[in-house]
Amino acid sequence: MREKLLNHFIGAVDNRDEYQQHEIYKELAFSGILLWYLSMLLMFVSLILDTIHNQFSLMTLLLFIINMVYATLIMTRLRKRQLDETDCASIEEYRDKRKRIKKSSILAGIQWGLFMFFIMQYLFPYLSTGEIVVNWVQTVIWGIGGILYGTLLYQISKSKLKKHF
Amino acid sequence: MKQKFTQIELAKKVGVARQTVNLIENDKYNPSLSLCISLSRVLKTDLNALFWEE
């Protein structure tokens, strides 16, 4: 079934051999990643347009649903086949990888917090009403949001480290 | 016993594309173990003689 779909998709008459399949999968995977980013960008642009017109369009909703379903599907399938796990042969290796995860999670938390703070406090209010009102409460809320996001990311990434010692 | 095949003949016998045989010959693709075994069977040789570099 999968082979038939693949042949139909690339327009091949007969089955591909192992090298060709490998290369086709690589190209399709890369195209899929590009399509995902493009779709996320479109969703963001659609959200900005909605904010300017003070509405929530069906287009934004559909793009959001498609992106979420796509991401969930890929994550679930990767996890099911244990393709996202990282093996650690020693305690030193485990500690080193955990340290790297912690560092990247802190960075991701800060980035998320700053991005959300900027779009929710500056960009969307400006596009919607033209007024920007920033207060400490909202700053603290996005700060806590960033910490929670970073912590969640750290916990998820840490759960993918498998101890073999 | 040495076997003489063109790339297309060998490709047909092991069930891959000629391009794949060409890439293997030029060290640009590492074939799977099952393909290595098929190649050695068709060429009537062993894996060492076929792939091992001194």
UniProtKB/TrEMBL annotation, chain A:
<feature type="transmembrane region" description="Helical">
    <location>
        <begin position="55"/>
        <end position="73"/>
    </location>
</feature>
<feature type="transmembrane region" description="Helical">
    <location>
        <begin position="105"/>
        <end position="124"/>
    </location>
</feature>
<feature type="transmembrane region" description="Helical">
    <location>
        <begin position="28"/>
        <end position="49"/>
    </location>
</feature>
<feature type="transmembrane region" description="Helical">
    <location>
        <begin position="136"/>
        <end position="156"/>
    </location>
</feature>
<keyword id="KW-1133">Transmembrane helix</keyword>
<dbReference type="InterPro" id="IPR021697">
    <property type="entry name" value="DUF3278"/>
</dbReference>
<keyword id="KW-0472">Membrane</keyword>
<protein>
    <recommendedName>
        <fullName>DUF3278 domain-containing protein</fullName>
    </recommendedName>
</protein>
<keyword id="KW-0812">Transmembrane</keyword>
<dbReference type="Pfam" id="PF11683">
    <property type="entry name" value="DUF3278"/>
</dbReference>
From TrEMBL, chain B:
<dbReference type="InterPro" id="IPR010982">
    <property type="entry name" value="Lambda_DNA-bd_dom_sf"/>
</dbReference>
<dbReference type="InterPro" id="IPR001387">
    <property type="entry name" value="Cro/C1-type_HTH"/>
</dbReference>
<keyword id="KW-0238">DNA-binding</keyword>
<feature type="domain" description="HTH cro/C1-type">
    <location>
        <begin position="2"/>
        <end position="50"/>
    </location>
</feature>
<dbReference type="Pfam" id="PF01381">
    <property type="entry name" value="HTH_3"/>
</dbReference>
<dbReference type="GO" id="GO:0003677">
    <property type="term" value="F:DNA binding"/>
</dbReference>
<protein>
    <submittedName>
        <fullName>Putative transcriptional regulator</fullName>
    </submittedName>
</protein>
